[in-house]
Amino acid sequence: MTTTEHLLDLSDFAWQRLRDRLTGLTDEEYFWEPFDGCWSIHESADGFVADGAAIPPKPAPFTTLAWRITHIVDILQEDRTATWFGQQPAADDGQPPVPGSAAAALAALDHAYDVWRRRLAALTEDVLSRPMGAVAGPYAEHDGTSFALHILDELIHHGAEVGAVRDFYRGARAEDPFADALAGERTPAEHPALLAEAAAAQRWDVVPQLADLGFDVNARTADGFTAAHLAAGTGSLDTLRFLVERGADVSLTDPRYDADVLGWANWFQQTEAADYLTARTHAGSDA
């Protein structure tokens, strides 16, 4: 693989991880300020603007998801991710916006990443290895690879911050996601993957209750894992036995590892689960 291909692989991995972490983002969460004095974005006569200062205060203020996502958009889409590599921005690249809603932020992120990825993919080994020159100001003697890695570092570490803020937001509003179903207020038709999600949350106490309410034991999480995969991989033998007794199909494979339930038990070195599944298979063969 070329250096450009390695950089693209890392970039795509970091981008997809961030994009997945933003599923379900709402305006309330986008603008959430957990502390006084947060930097965020604010509406002005000319649209939304981001808080900032030429010399940021020390320590820096906590920044909202709106500020952080706007910053990532700016990092990826700004002109220097073209000009410092000796390129010219394309006519439809545009300038980085300050998105005024969660939906606008996701659209802006998608566009900014498309712009950055196209610019990155166009880099040759010569561009990556030579000094960037006067256009890069104080970084004139740095080569293209160092600048590409800097942008990727920005994407990775700000993406991690976005994920952490989402975790804080969820924790501050913690609710039992399965309570409505257990109270009979959510049906399998309304949320068919709920039993698999309970297994993903390792709420093993909830799995039998959801099965009793008619939730599908072979349902999959958004990642394509069944409850049986998760029980086997975590060594939750009682839950695994229960699922099998309730008709869980242990031959189903997952999209990430292309492994069945026994494959998960073996991969995660869950000996008791693997022995149980192997013995069950042999018993079926003998019959």
From TrEMBL:
Supply the name of the protein: DinB family protein
**Locate the DinB-like domain: which residues?**
13-161
In the record, which residues are listed under signal peptide? none
Could you tell me the keywords of this UniProt record? ANK repeat
Organism domain of life = Bacteria
Gene3D superfamilies per the UniProt record, alphabetical: Ankyrin repeat-containing domain, dinb family like domain
Repeats (ANK): which ranges?
223-255
